[in-house]
Each structure stands twice: as structure tokens, then as C-alpha cells.
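Input set for joint prediction.
Command: fold jointly, output C-alpha cells.
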Amino acid sequence: MRRTTQGGILVGCGVLFVIVWEIRSALGLLAGVDTNPQLYMLLTLAVVGLTAVALAIGLIGLRPEPPADEDAQ
Amino acid sequence: MSEQLESGAPTFLDKFPDEAAVVRAALWSSFIALALGAVFGLIQALHRTDVLRLIDSTDYYTVLTAHGVLMVVSFTIFFLVGLFTWATVRSFDRGVESIRYTWTWYGLMVAGTLMAVVAILGGFVPQTDISADVLFTFYAPMQAHPLFYGGLAIFVIGTWLAGADYIWTWRAWAAENPDERIPLQGFMVLTTMLMWYVATIGIAIAVVAFLLPWSLGLFDQINPLLTRTLFWFWGHPVVYFWLMPAYLLWYTVLPTIAGGRLFSDPLGRVVFVLFLLLSTPVGIHHQYVDPGIAEGFKTIAMTNTMFLLLPSLLTAFTVVASVEHGARQRGGTGLLGWLRALPWRNPAFTGMMLAGLMFAAGGFSGMINAGMNINYLVHNTIWVPGHFHLTVGTAVALTLMAATYWLWPQLTNRRLYSRPIGLAQVVIWFVGMGLMSNAMHVQGLFGIPRRTAEPQYEGFDFVASFGSVSELNLQLAIGGTLLFISTMLFVTNIALSAGTPKLSGIGQPLSEPLSTVDDSPEILDNLKLWFGIALVLVVLAYALPLASIIDRGGLLGPGVDPVPMIVEPVAATIEPTLGRLAAAVGSVVP
Amino acid sequence: MVPTMSGENTVREIGHDEFDPKGTLVLILVYFGVLSVMWVFMYFVEFLGNDLTVLV
Amino acid sequence: MNIHNYEKIWLVLSMLLIIGFISTVVYGATAVGIEMVNDEGGTIDSTALDEDDRFSEPRVEKVGEDEYEAYVVARQFIFEPNPIEVPANSTVTFYVTSPDVLHGFEVVGTNANAMVVPGEITELTVEVNEPKEYGILCNEYCGGGHHTMEGKLIVVPEDEFELGDSNDE
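C-alpha cells >
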């Protein structure tokens, strides 16, 4: 599988971070689960960081956009 | 980076150099307001969360007024007039009728902004009596310096003249092309400006008939519920005025950048007509828990507001379908696998998509705000700023910034200074806003108020149902800091772009819609009809509530004295007597 | 005007009649589900379950 | 006009969503009986609260079996009376007005949340249950000391409640 581009990793991990972190609020409000904030933050960063590394070394892969577009704007 | 893809097509600057200069000026005015507003925003985020307090808490309200006015009046509306000038000239494919006239309305808007900003920043200088610590909503009987109201009036007149400019171009085009349908961008510009004419009736009456003469001392009593209602007459449609430039970009630019075509031109027109019709007769939903307005009027406002969800829900479908079309044309396959085929490394595309994603979340909190009785839960809590930082603060702001990455080369014939910085900027914004608005929504549910320097009280503590208030504060502060960094990256990136070499032939034509206007009924383009219906709807929604308010409190409400907002730190202690003293002194000095 | 921005990126041209936005439909149905669940939660749990009910 | 079938499906679902929202609110208003603050509180000369029987001396009054009225003045930057004391398991109607600028009247962490406008009287009826202390805060910006404007609502056990306790002067 081809490696994901740096830009793709940045965008993907930014979105992943927000989603994983928002789940904490959802757990707190909807389910009444009070997670430890420090621990949860560490966990979030770990999930996002591991995903970033895995994407970077091609362990998991997303096909990047066609190269022709790289500098089109 | 590899070389710029050159289509060989002329840019907007090549075709319309004079108009491009106006557009650049308007956009720069917008970015300066954005940068200043971001500084004030950072001060606030750190102050109210008690992370870092650089200013006296009394001055917090000066900062808050400046942040509000600069962001939602100057940043958004300067961008709007710049973008609309571009869209009008581009879509009718003809220059403005008089470039001097165009510069005139731009000049008026600048003058108005400067007046209002001077009045607001005067609040930092205790030696003057110039002050406007009245926040963006300037509810009477809090009184600002006349310069503030005068500045607002001149700014709004500038926008009216801008609208007339677009109509002028349209009429000139229509005289030469009597049988043609209005091009889509032109249609969007015109319906938005017609909506603005309807909406600004409220603010014009409030400011010119009441607040300005009252601040000049021509009369000394005012009906606060009347001016507040007139404010919201304008104060809700103005949020659509902020949003419509983003919609215009989502409908007409985003599909092209995604490599596709707009799914449906006629539905785009239906959406803008719905906004023209329904944006204004809804303002009373900001007054669900106001005294002096009957529940029936509030129910009507709620019903209208709920139906106003329709054009936004339709937009969600049309825009995502257009992007999907782009992805499939780029070779994307599968039920959701096409998402991978999109140009995620392009900051213009990614920024607009992230803005749209946050708008989906902001749409939900907006639905809660629109619900009449559930408003008791969230009214004036920080939930509300949490909501509008997702809508105007991201759906609009991030879209405008992202679109600038695409638009700026068309206006300057220069490449963007750095696309990677641009990409990082939009992602930082998304993460920062994710943190900040999440914390704001949750705090709001715990009853923590908006618009306050120190949400910490002596007699009680806020009860957090999970986590803690201090943790949420930290989250809010980190989010606000990221947003500040993101704004600075954006403005710097654009400023540095002035130093990149001039190129030629980098024009980017926009793609044609899949479903064109030809198969839609001509009545859609009958702007007079829609404008007339919009006016009728406004009369239906507002005639009775306004009559009732005037009947109750009088045009110039008896028994309400002005309270000038010339608050120096000393006068703002908890002693209420001092507050009243300041008011008494202030009423002698109008 | 050219139909698309840059021919190089277009692997295939897809016209009006051959395009069904089924991915969009899936995404928007998920959004519909989220909205409905969140609305019910906010109204019936957060609001109606809250203290000091305002009455006539 | 040519609208794709999927978009028609979405149009129908959108309308259902909108109608669902409105129905929920109507259910709350009718079946649960939640009334909005409205125009029934009446008007008042805000420069002459001293001459008004109710607001010259902000207080709590008993008006019926388990029914109380609280006359509250919200001004820069205090609530009067403070604290507001009411007995448990009663129905309390707040009448709130302002002699100066707009204020907010929010019983913290509850649904009792309304605007206070000079010249108008905000009327808000709530049911209070077991003994508890609530904070009250102003949630509409009202001047440089806005963040210091707070009060208290104390729900006391029925057998400990005495009229007049609420007056702080």
C-alpha cells in the first residue's frame, strides 16, 4: 500500500483528535461516565499519534490524491 | 513544491484590473479586522478562564465589544462586499458601471468602521468620555458615544450602496441580454442583498430614529424593549448575511476545487430564495424569554425559524453531492471510499470541508436554540457563543479563509506563499475550535453565563456533571490560543504572498452545474416577486409585536433613563450606589 | 467555460444521468440519525429532566 | 424542474425533522405545561420603583396554600432581596424588574432563566421541591461590574420558613 502524504496525515489526525476528544463530552453528558481528563487526553494523543505513525510508515494506508493536483489551486 | 499548474486562462485580475483592486482592498480591510479581532479574542479566552488576566475585568467588556464588532461586522461584511464584487463582475462578465462609485461605498464602509472602532477603543482611555462598552448588541438604555452609532449608520449606508452597485451591474447586463437567465453567482449576490435591504430596516430605524438622537441628547428616554426588538429584527438575518458568502463559495467554487460540478443550479436558487423570504421574520427567537412579548408571537417566530432549517439542510445535500461527483470524476469508488479521492492537501478544499463539517455540528446546537421552551436551558449561557463560533466563527470564517487561498492568486496573479502553512492553518483552526466550542457548549449546560469577565461567584459554584469547570476552562483557553495562532498564520501567509513572483495564465474557470438552470421555472428569477413576498412576511411577523411593544412602553418609553457606558475601573466596583452615581454624572454629560 | 477545472485530474467525466450520489445519501442519513438522537436527549433528558420546571 | 430522487428523500426527511422539532416543543408547552415568559407581567415606571407597592420593598409574599410571590429588583450590580427564601414544595412566581439597564435572571443550573427589561415586569412561575440552595446570576451584560452581580435562592424546609426572612435590610 502506498504511503499517505504528510498533508493527508495532518488533516486526518486533526479530525481524528477532535472526534476522539469530543467522545469524552458525549460519554459525560449522555452516559454519565466521568473519565479522568488527564488520562483521557493522554489516551487521545496516543491514539492520534499512533495513527499518524502508522500512516506515515505505511502500516495502514489511504491512497493519496492523484499527484497531478498537488499544486493546483 | 512543484510548479504551479497553469491553465493558461486569464485571471480575474487580467480581465478586470480596476475591480480586482477594489476586491483586494475590501479583503484586506476584512483581514485587518480579523487579526485585531483575534488579538481581542485571545485576551478574552485567557481572561474569562482565569488562565492569564492582562487587563482589568472592567476593560474586558471593551475588549468584548471590539471583538464582536470587528469580527461579525467588519471581518465578515468587508469580505462579503469584496467577494460579491468579484462574483458580480465575474458572473455577469462585465465591469462595474462606475469604479468611482464603487470606491465611494468602500470608503464609506471604512469611515464607518473607523468611527465605531475609535468609539469602542476610547473605552481604554479614561481621560476621554468617548466610550462604547455596549457590546455588539448595544441594548439601550446602555448608551454609547454618538460616534459609535454614527459609525454603524455610515457603515450600513455603505453596504446599501454596494448592493445598489450590484443591482446596477445586473440591470445593465439585463438590458443587453433580455432573454437570459441570471447567472448563478449573480443570482446569489442579488437575493442576499435584497435580504439585507429587508433586514436593515430594523437596525436603520433603531439607530437613526432612536439611538443616535438619544445619544446626542435630543431626547432622554427610550423604550428598551422596542430598540432591542428592532435590533433582533436585523440581528438574526445578519447571521445569514454572514453565511451567504460561505454558501456562495460552497455552491460555486467548492465543486470546482473538488474536481466536480455543482449537483443542481435550480436547487441553489431555491435555497437563496428561501433565505430571502425567511431570514427576517424570525428575530423574535432571540427574545423567547423576554417580558412584554406574547407567547403567540414567539411561537410564530419559532415556526419560521424551524422552516429556515430547510434551505440549510438542502444545502448540505447538494454541496456534499457535488463534492462526491468531483471525487468520482477523480476516480473515487465505493459507497464511502470516494472520500479518499478528494484533494485533501489543497488548503482551500480542506478548509471548506472542515468548515462544513463543523457547520453540521453548529447546525445541531442552532436547532436547540431555535426550540422555544428548551431555550430556558441555554439562554445567555456560554452555550450560545459555543454555537455561533461553530457557525459564523467556523462555517463562515474558515470558509472565507480557505477560499482566500484559492481566490487570492486570481486577484494578484501571484501564487500563495505557502500551501503547507495554509493546510496546517485550517487544521489548527479545526482543532482549536473543536476544543473551544466543545468546552463552551458543555459549560453552557452547567449554567455558566456568556459575556462575563469572571464566571466565578462568591455565593455558589457551578456543578459539573462530569469532569470539572477548571478543566473545561483550560480546554477553552487552549482552543482559543490555537485559533489565535491559526489566524496569525493565515494573515501572515497572505501578506507574504505579495512577495512571490508574478505569474500569468493562472486563471481558474469555474465548472458548470450538472443540472443547469434551463430546466427550472423562470419564476425563480423574478426577484421583484420574492422581494415583495419577503416584505409581506416581515410585516406579518412584526407588525403586531411592534405595535404591542409601542402600545405598552411608548415610542420613547416613559421612565427609562439613559445609562452611559463610561465605566472607569473605579466606578465599577460592586457598590451599586457608585454605579448609579456614574449614571447620574453621565446623564448630565450626554 | 470548461466543464471541469483541470482535465489532468479527471479520470472520467460523469454526466448528469449517470451520477447517483449514494455516498452523500449515506452520510446525510447518518447525520439525520445523529440529529434525531441528540434532539431527544437534549429535550427530554437535559431540559425536561432539569430542576425548577417553569409552569403556567 | 429536475430533482434527483435521493434529494427528494432528503427533502421529505428534512420536513419530518422540522415537524418533529415543532411537535416536541408543542408537547412541552401543552402536555408538560411549560409556559414562556410573556406580556402578562405588565409594565412599570422604572424611574419610580420606590412608589410601587411591590418593588419599593423587594420581598417574598404568601398568596395562597403553597403559593408564593417573590418581588425582585435586579439593578447594577445586585439582586434584591438577597437571599430569596422560599419554602420547599411550593409554587413560586417571580416578578422581576430593573430600574437601570437590561439584566438577566438565571437560577443557576435550572430552567428558571429570563431577561429583565426596564419598564417591563418579568413574570416567571416555577415549582420548587426539596430544600436546596441555588445561586442566582445576571446573564445579560449590564456594565463594568456585571460579573459581580449574584444572589441566592434558598429553599428552606417548610417548617423552618418564616416570611420576612428574605429581607436583607
